[in-house]
Amino acid sequence: MRIAIRICFFIAISGLCAAQARPFPGPDVQQIYQRLLPEIEKIPAFDHHAHPGYADDPDVDAMAAPPNASEAMRTRDDNPELVAAAKALFGYPYSDLSAEHSKWLLDKKNELKKQLKGTAYFDSILDKINTESSVANRAMMPDYLDPKRFPWVFFADSFLWPFNNERETARSPDQGVYIPLQKKMLDRWMQQENINKLPPTFAEYLKFISQVLEDNSKRGGIAMKFEVAYFRPTTFSDPSHAQAEQLYQRYVGGGIPTERDYRTFQDFIFRYLVEEGGRLHLPVHIHTAVGIGDYFNLSQSNIMNLESVIRDPRYAATIFVMIHGGYPLEREAIWLAAMKNVYLDSSFGELTQYPAAFKDTLKMWLETFPDKITFGTDCFPYNQVLGSEESYWLGVRSSRTALAAALAEMISENEITEARALELAHAYLHDTAVKLYEGRVH
Ligand SMILES: [Zn+2]
Known about the structure:
Elements: H1 2-16, H2 29-41, E1 45-47, H3 81-90, H4 99-115, H5 120-128, E2 131-134, E3 136-137, E4 152-155, H6 166-169, H7 173-192, H8 202-218, E5 221-226, H9 241-251, H10 259-279, E6 284-287, H11 307-310, E7 320-323, H12 330-333, E8 342-345, H13 349-352, H14 355-366, E9 373-374, H15 388-412, H16 418-435
Helix pairs in contact: 2-15, 3-15, 8-10, 9-10, 14-15, 15-16
Bound molecules: zinc ion.
Residues 49, 51, 137, 378 line the site of zinc ion (ZN).
């Protein structure tokens, strides 16, 4: 009798409160997940942040990994998930990655590269993971990537380092690797514009920068990317044009800038580039997460440092994409997406976290600003076994499973319907990012 009353009470309450969210998923959560996952796997993805390319290609990034840098557990070459990646992508017949067995994999890839000429090899990788197209965030584009499926995002940091960089290079072993590569990148942009030394006046330097942006856009560039957090703190002051001009005149002919002078000059150039991004319809991608290298300073590159720039109404016409969503500060980061022109990319979070943890990140984002979050893998030729191919696979697979799990919990907790969940999946995996590029990507 007492049990019967309780059951009736429960039914009455649950009937009345069908739309009220509850704090735990019900026993149906696994079934919902199993239903959602195949639907989510069918959605052709747009990868908003990746560095596709072969391991021996120096243009995969505008910087390079410093020697002997610590690797987080999941991106090490002994991650057993990489066996699954090799099986899915290449039909790998073994269940470990011993030196002897890994040779099979290398031979197989070489054989496929010979068979699939031109752009066909990397196209076939995207086909296997159901990615329609993927950003190629690279120093330059190679002839083995089809620009229709791999739209170019070029690097804009080097304009911040035109002067004598002796002091900058000496700050740490990591800067010793990074800063000379910035100089190299700047030289390449100068070569592109047929100049062999820095312009004599500041006005001409700014004109040169704008010309590179315009030319890169014509050559297929869809956005500019900053990885400035690797090179200096991401707190940007707001110096005047006159201040920056004075500093340019002081150092263009030589001399080592004081750290303060260099930062002030860079702060102006960064803001100039951000503004040009609005004028030229080139979204601005900014690395906003912890980074590789043991000297990467997380507190000085905290995503919230950028708040003074991205909440500045002067840049309302610029679209910002916060690459890596501020990880491990992704909880704060999602509130930056309250700005109409600010979007988050989830790449790297899905590689460095396992799906069980990444699911919670995605769920929190989906519950806050679901229309402002985009999918990316941060694919990169990390090492011999975790190449671009495998990191694409690991990133896509982790993101699709974490997404299905996050949405299944939200459905089971009465937050959203299953139909709405699939709309959110399409938005995150493809639609939201594609809309930012005004028909230039698919
Ligand atoms: Zn990246």
